[in-house]
User: Which sequence fits this backbone?
């Protein structure tokens, strides 16, 4: 499994270099680069003027270092990430989607329905809670260590605890 190099937020816009003030809103995004998905942060002014091409994004605020970190993440945003990865065939993105599925199951947004084998691959069918749709997810047979590693990388990307 390839590792992702996830950069921590630097507290400034990736394009303009503008420093974010405490509690200032900005946009965090996953941008597809030749090396894989990379987190980049954009100031509100740049985002609204240029709307850069990104894989997915979320609005956040610059945390106050004096306050306890907020550990909340919107399950709908996670579900959007999950849906965006549906047609991906790259192993890293399939692994990311599988771990997102596990997180969404823990948050009770997805419910395991069934499993089957298809051309030597294990396929899990999960139902989106509150919706009439079922979704198939390839089980990439990750080890516990790989799941923990991906969860840690996702936490860094999203700046939250996923437990």
Assistant:
């Amino acid at each position: 499994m390839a590792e992702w190099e996830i950069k921590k937020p630097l507290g400034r816009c990736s394009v303009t270099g503008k420093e974010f003030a405490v509690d200032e809103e900005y946009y965090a995004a996953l941008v597809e680069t030749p090396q894989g998905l990379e987190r980049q942060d954009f100031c509100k002014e740049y985002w609204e003027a240029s709307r850069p091409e990104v894989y997915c994004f979320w609005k956040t605020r610059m945390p106050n270092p004096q306050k306890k970190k907020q550990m909340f993440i919107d399950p709908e945003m996670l579900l959007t990430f999950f849906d965006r990865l549906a047609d991906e065939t790259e192993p890293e993105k399939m692994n990311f989607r599988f771990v997102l599925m596990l997180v969404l199951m823990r948050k009770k947004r997805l419910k395991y329905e069934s499993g089957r084998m298809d051309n030597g691959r294990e396929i899990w069918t999960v139902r989106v809670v509150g919706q009439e749709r079922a979704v198939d997810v390839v089980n990439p047979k990750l080890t516990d260590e790989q799941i923990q590693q991906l969860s840690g990388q996702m936490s860094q990307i999203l700046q939250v605890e996923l437990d």
